[in-house]
Amino acid sequence: MTGQTSALMALRDPDIRLMLRVREADDRQAFAELVGRYQHRLVAVMNHLVGRPDEAEDLAQEVFLRVYRTRQKYTPKAKFATWLFAIANNLALNALRDRRRKRVVSLDPPDPNASGPWQTDQLVSDRGQPPTQNLQQVELAAVIRQALDQLNDRQRMAVVLNKFEDLNYAEIAEVMGLTTKAVKSLLSRARSRLRECLMPYVYMDGEAPPKSQADDGGD
Amino acid sequence: MADQPANRPPPDEPAPDPDADLIAYLDGELDGPEVQEVEARLALDPAARTRADSYKKTFDLLDHLPRPEPSLDFATRTLTRLLPATRDELQTARSGASSSRVARRSRLWVWLVAGGLAAAGGYVAHFALRPAAGHTDELSYADVRVIENLPLYLGVDDLEFLRVLDDPELFAPSLVTGAGRTDVSRPDAPPVNREKLETLYTSYPAARRQQLRDLDQQLREVPASQREHLVRVLEGYAVWLDQLTDADRREVLAAADADARLDTVRRVKERAWRDSLPAKARDQLKLVASDQERLGLVETRKVAEHARQEEWQLARRQWDDLRPDRKPWPFSDPDLARGVDEYIRTVLKVDPSVRPEGKGDLPAAWRVTPAEYADLRVRHLAAANGGGGWDWFSYGLVVHRLSQKHPYLPPFDDRKPLTDATTLPLPLVRELRAKGGLQLNEKRWTRGKWPEFALEVDAAADRARVKLAEKLGPSRPGEFSPAVNVLLDGLLPMLTPDERVGLEKLEGEWPEYPRAVVRLAQKHDLSISGVTLPGRPSLWTRYYSLAPHKE
C-alpha cells in the first residue's frame, strides 16, 4: 500500500483521517472523537454478541484501548469501521471462548435487563396466556436472544454485523478474516437455525400461518 | 491490516447449502444471472417462496432485540484509562514532535491540492457550458495570490456565500478547536502543484477568474481576526469537498448559482448525516410514513446529537486539566462544593442523593423535570461514589445547565413564597378567573414552585389587565433576605452611573427589579447566596459553557 493510496483513502473516510492524526501526532482529541462516534455501535454489537451489558462495555472499552495502543501499526487498507470491527471480532471471540473454558459460576444475581444463555430457563413457557404488550415484548426479546445463543460464535458475529451494522458479505469477510463464499455459507446456516428457532413466533400477532407452511419441507 | 485478528479461524469452506443463494438473494448479494436463477426458482416453487418469506420474517424479528446504549460515562471511563499511557508516550515522543507537526501540515496541503484538482473538474465542466470570455496570457499579482489559495476558493462564489457557510450547521469552526490556535501560517504549495493550479486557474473563463480575484480582495479587506476565522471556514469547506464522492462534489460545484450551490451543500450534508446514523436509526427513518414525523425524528436526533457534541467540546477544552484523581472547579474547593449541594437543594429544590419515595407524582416543589432529575442523579452518583475528574466535570455541566434553564429569583425574606392559589388573596383569584386570565384550580406544572407560579400569575394578571394590590415578590432593597441585602450593598458601589440609575428606576417593579439585580451581579462576577450558583459566574462560564460570556 503506497502512501499516496492511503492518503486517497483518508480523503474518502473522515474516520481514517482522525485515526491518522492519532497515529502521527498522538492526537487525543481525534481519538476522543473516534470514541464518541463509535461507542454506541460498538457497545451494541458487543452486547448482541456476549449478551451482558457490563461485559459488552468492558469489551468495547478494550477495543478502543487496543486501537490506541496499536495506533503506530495502523495502515489504512479499508474503512476505519472495518478495522475496528476486526479488532472487536477478535476480542469478542476470545472472550466467549474463555467464558466457555472457565465456566465460572457468578455469585451475582443475573441482571434482569440483560439477556443471555443463563436466562434461558427463565423464559415464560406458557404461551397460552395472553400477555400484556410489554410482557410480550420482553418475552419476545428473550426468545430471540435464546435463538441467537443457539448459533455458534462466528455465526452470531456474522449475523450481528449483517443485521445491525448493515455490513455486506465482503465487508463481513474482511472483518472476520474469511472468504466471501465462507461468509455466505456461514450466514446461510445461521439464518436456517434462526428460522428453526423463531418460526413459532413469526405469526404470533394473530396472523394465520401461510397454508403452504404445513407442506414446507424445510431444509 | 495492522491489527489483523490473531485467532483467524480455519478455512470455512461451505458445504452445499440449497438455501444459501435464496438467503443471499434476500440480502441483495447476488449478481444478475444468479438473481434471475433464484427468481425463476421462486416463481416455480411455492415451498421456496414460503421459505424465503420465513427467512425474511424470522430475520426481521431480530429488530425486536433492545439495542442498549453505552452508559453515560462510557467514553469518559475509556479515555481516562488512556491518560497515564498517553502522558508517558508523549514524554518519549517529545523529541520528534515538531517534525511530525510539519509533516502533518504538509500532508494537509497535498490533500487540499489533490482534492482541489479533482473538484475542479466539476467547475470546468460547469463553465464549459457558458461562453468563455477569453484567456489572459499574463498573470497579475492578484492572479498569483488567487492561485496560491485556489484549493480553498474552489466552490466558493463570493464573500457573501462564504459568510453563509460560516454557520454551525455548515462549516463554522467550533469555538473550542479555534480557541487555542495561534499558528495560522500554511506551508507553501510545492512547485509542481503550483503549476497545476496555475493551469487550472488559467483554464477558467474570465468571469470566474474575476470572481475569484474579487473574493480574494474582499477577504483581504476584512479585519485580520475575522479573516482568519473565515479562512478556517474555507478550510473546513475545502476538506469537506475533498471527502465527497465524485458525484456529490460535481453536484456541488456544478450548481447554477450561489443559492443553488448552498441548497446542494445542505442536501449533501443532510444525506451524509443520515448515512452516518446507526443502522437502526436509519431504518426507523425509512419506516416513518409521514414527512412531518420524519422531520420530528430528525430534529429530535439532531438536538440530542448537538447536546452530546457540546459536552464533548467542553470536555476536550479541559482535557489536560481533568485527571482521575483531581476534582475540577468548583468541586475542588470544599466550601464551593458544599455551596453547589446547597444550591441544588434550596434553589432547584431536589436532592439527587435521595431517590424520591413512592410511585405517585413527583414533589410539586421540584423545579426540574423528571428527566432532568434522572440525569442529575445519575451524574451525581457517578461523581459522589468515588468518581474521577471527568465524573465531577459531567456533574458540573448538568448543574450549570439546570441553573441556566431554571433561573431563580429571591423570595421575600419575611413571607412564604407564593407557590399556589391558596396563598393568593381570594378576590384576586376570583377576578383572574372572571376575566379569563388564569384557571388557578387546574393542575399546572408551576404549582408548588417559586418563582414559576408567581411569574405565571403576574403574566396572567397582565394579560387580563388585573391590577395587583401587592407585588408578588421583593422589588426594592430591604425586602430581600439578609444575604441578598449584603450582596446589594456590595454591588451598588460597583455599578456604573447608568446601571445605578437603571436599577433605581425599576424599584417597586416585580419581577423586573430582582431580575436586574441578578443580571448585574452576574455582569460584575458576583454570586448571590441562595439565588445563583456559588463561585464566580465567569468561572462557571469558562468551565461549563460553550457560549461566550455575554455582558
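Chain A has nine helices and no strands.
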